[in-house]
C-alpha cells in the first residue's frame, strides 16, 4: 500500500482534497538553493516536534538537524526565527536527517510564525 493510501485510511476521504497540494509544497527541487553542506558541522537539533505542526507535515523528527534556511546557516535557536521572518515565512530548510545522516531540503509554511519545533544548538 502506498503512502497516500495509508494517509487516506488514517485521515479519511476529506483529506484527499488538501493532501496533494501539501505534499507538493513540502518537497521542493534540490537545485533551487545553492547551500553547500560539505563543511557544515553545526546546526539546530530538533528536540520536539508538535503534533500536526508544519514541521510534522514536512516529516521532520526529533534528532534531525536544521543546518540552513534558504542557504543561511543556523547556529543559534534565534537564527531560525530570524531567517524564517526574512524569507516571509516561506523558507526552504536544509536538514541533516538523523536516521540516514544525509542532507535534504524541506519547504515548510509556518503557522503564526512558528514551524512547531523546539531546537538546541549542536555540533556534529
Outline the structure in words.
This protein is α+β, with helices and mostly antiparallel strands. The protein folds into 2 domains: 1-30, no CATH class; 40-124, Pdz3 Domain. Helices cover 25% and strands 26% of the residues. The chain has 4 helices and 6 strands. It has helices at 3-11, 19-26, 54-57, 77-86, and strands at 42-49, 65-69, 72-73, 92-96, 103-107, 117-123. Strands 1, 2, 3, 4, 5 and 6 form a 6-stranded antiparallel beta sheet that branches. The longest helix has 10 residues, at 77-86. The radius of gyration is 15 Å and the shape is globular. The N and C termini lie far apart (36 Å). The relative contact order is 0.22.
What tags apply to this protein structure?
124 residues; alpha+beta; Pdz3 Domain; 6-stranded antiparallel sheet; globular
Instruction: Give the low-pLDDT segments.
Output: 4-34
Count of beta strands: 6
Number of helices: 4
Radius of gyration, rounded?
Answer: 15 Å
**So what's the CATH class of the largest domain?**
Mainly Beta
What proportion of the residues form beta strands (DSSP E)? 25-35%
In whole angstroms, how far apart are the ends? 36 Å
Provide the structure class. Answer: alpha+beta
Which descriptor suits the 3D outline?
Answer: globular
What CATH calls the topology of the largest domain is Pdz3 Domain
Q: Could you give a short account of the major beta sheet? A: 6 strands, antiparallel
The percentage helix is 25-40%
Amino acid at each position: 500500500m502506498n503512502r497516500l493510501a495509508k494517509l487516506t485510511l488514517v485521515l479519511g476521504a476529506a483529506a484527499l482534497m488538501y493532501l496533494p497540494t501539501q505534499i507538493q509544497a513540502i518537497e521542493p527541487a534540490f537545485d533551487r538553493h545553492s547551500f553547500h553542506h560539505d563543511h557544515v558541522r553545526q546546526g539546530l537539533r530538533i528536540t520536539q516536534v508538535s503534533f500536526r505542526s508544519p514541521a510534522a507535515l514536512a516529516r521532520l523528527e526529533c534528532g534531525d538537524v536544521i543546518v540552513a534556511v534558504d542557504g543561511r546557516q543556523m547556529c543559534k535557536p534565534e537564527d531560525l526565527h530570524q531567517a524564517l521572518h526574512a524569507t516571509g515565512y516561506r523558507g526552504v530548510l536544509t536538514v541533516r536527517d538523523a536516521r540516514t545522516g544525509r542532507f535534504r531540503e524541506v519547504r515548510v509554511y509556518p503557522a503564526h510564525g512558528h514551524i512547531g519545533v523546539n531546537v538546541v544548538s549542536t555540533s556534529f
